[in-house]
Specification:
The chain has ten helices and nine strands. It is an alpha/beta fold. It folds into two domains: about 220 residues, Spore Coat Polysaccharide Biosynthesis Protein SpsA, Chain A; about 50 residues. Helix 9 packs antiparallel against helix 10.
Length: about 280
């Protein structure tokens, strides 16, 4: 877990993870939480030898925080879990089974459920291309009669299925597979690093699996941080993705995408100012 000012739900997530016998160890990277929460984390770690806390002393971002946590991990399989995500009983087993059967470097994602008990966006996704990004950004998939990049509205499969991408909110890899792809790309600060690592895994012949039998209750957006800053990081992540994976025209695709993305961000910033 990588935590930045997550709030009270962080301790629910820790309790849920440690309640699962299949979890050998829980490594929490403290990316700058409030002082009172840090005190509680230190006390929890002192009382439970399965919990380790790494203090980054600054907000390193998600990708760098995950890589820092992995360096301290001892297990053969790694589960990256958001600090506002509650691991449900029995979810580890199906993810491990799917990871062991898949071609390396394999990535297995879980089904993300909101507090409203509905499947959240992002747990199973299509191929991120210039066209799919524009269609998803504009929300016109139905209008054009094409398959949406986001697939949470599609029928739930009975068992594990291969997909182009899963969410970093609950993502399992073997240590061998993680090493094969050299971990997360730390040039992404927050968002899109999960799409990038899924893309790189598939390019090396690995399988990306959506495991519907593994459920995670994901609160989402709990960190005390400006929505505008989060959206800006998401935008810069998308642009970096297309610069890296967009082929010979990657720079052009990134530049074209930047226009609607940053126009929307400016509009949102203006709205936030009006709301005070």
């Amino acid at each position: 877990m990588v935590s930045f000012r997550t709030g009270e739900v962080l301790f629910e997530a820790i309790d849920a993870a440690l309640a699962e016998p299949a979890v050998d160890e829980l490594i929490l990277v403290n990316n700058e939480n409030p002082a009172d929460h840090i005190e509680r984390l230190v006390a929890l770690a002192a009382d439970n030898n399965r919990l380790s806390v790494i203090h980054a002393n600054e907000n390193l971002g998600f990708a760098k925080g995950c890589n820092l946590g992995v360096r301290a991990a001892r297990s053969d399989y790694l589960l990256f879990l958001n600090p506002d995500a509650l691991l449900q009983p029995g979810s580890i087993g199906p993810m491990l089974d799917s990871a062991r059967l898949a071609h390396e470097p394999a990535i297995v994602g879980a089904r993300l459920i909101g507090v409203d008990e509905k499947e959240q966006r992002g747990a199973r996704r299509g191929e991120l291309t210039f066209t799919s990004a524009l269609v998803a950004f504009l929300g016109i998939a139905k209008l054009l009669g094409v398959r949406d990049f986001h697939r949470e509205h599609e029928p739930l499969p009975d068992g594990p299925v291969r997909v182009p991408a899963v969410s970093g909110a609950a993502m399992m890899m073997s240590r061998r597979g993680y090493d094969q792809v050299s971990g997360f790309d730390e040039r992404y600060f927050l968002h899109v690093e999960d799409l990038d690592i899924c893309k790189r895994s598939r390019e090396l012949g690995g399988h990306v699996i959506f495991e519907p039998r593994a459920e995670i209750v994901h609160h989402g957006s709990t960190s005390k941080i400006s929505v505008y800053r989060v959206e800006r990081w998401k935008a810069s992540g998308l642009i970096r993705y297309f610069r890296r994976h967009g082929g010979g025209l990657g720079w052009l695709k990134a530049a074209i995408l930047a226009i609607p993305i940053y126009s929307a961000l400016l509009g949102r910033a203006a709205l936030l100012r009006l709301r005070g």
